[in-house]
Amino acid sequence: MCIRDSIGNVYVKYTTEDDAENAYNNIQGRTYDNRRIVCEYSPVTDFKEARCRQYDEGECKRGGYCNFMHLKHVSRSFKKQLFKDMYEAFPEYRKRRRDREKNKDTDRG
Fold first, then answer.
1. Is the dihedral angle over the CA atoms 51, 76, 12, 66 positive or is it negative?
2. Count of other CB atoms within 10 angstroms of residue 69
3. In terms of pTM, does the model score above 0.85?
4. Ramachandran bin of 66, using left for φ above 0, alpha for ψ from -120 to 50, beta for the remaining angles
5. In this structure, are residues 23 and 29 in contact, taking their beta carbons and an 8 Å threshold?
6. Residues 81, 56: Cα–Cα separation, whole Å
7. Residue 77, H or E segment
8. DSSP 3-state percent helix, strand, coil across the chain (nearest 5)
9. For the chain, does the N or the C end have fewer beta carbons within 10 angstroms?
């Protein structure tokens, strides 16, 4: 899950701590749109509790200065294209996903 707020913060939720650490190490210090990327680990574990309910109801007046997350909807077609591009650029991810799914199936039964 990837969430961006209006002042430029992006929150990404990973399935494992190893994946989060790997992303942190590979992204930290890079630039995007001529801005330096600064990574931090977030103590938030339940993104539902970190959401701005006023924003969800269309009533938040704090905008980018709100201390809660303003989640933006990502269309299904855009997600599909992102995954397609990711698997083309990094085919090893598809293998890891299939291996993980296979292990879940064997653990069940």
1. negative
2. 19
3. no
4. beta
5. no
6. 26
7. helix 76-89
8. 45, 10, 45
9. C
DSSP letter string, 34-68 = TEE----------TTTTB-HHHHTT----GGG-SS
Give me the half-sphere count of Cα atoms (radius 13 Å) on the Cβ side of residue 6: 12
Q: Is the dihedral of CA 58, 64, 69, 72 positive or negative?
A: positive
What's the token pair of residue 36? 């330096």
28-58 residue pLDDT tens: 989 888 888 889 888 777 778 888 999 889 8
pLDDT per position as a tens digit, 51-89: 899 988 989 998 778 888 887 778 999 999 998 998 899
The pair of three-digit structure tokens given for residue 37, joined into one six-digit string = 């990327």
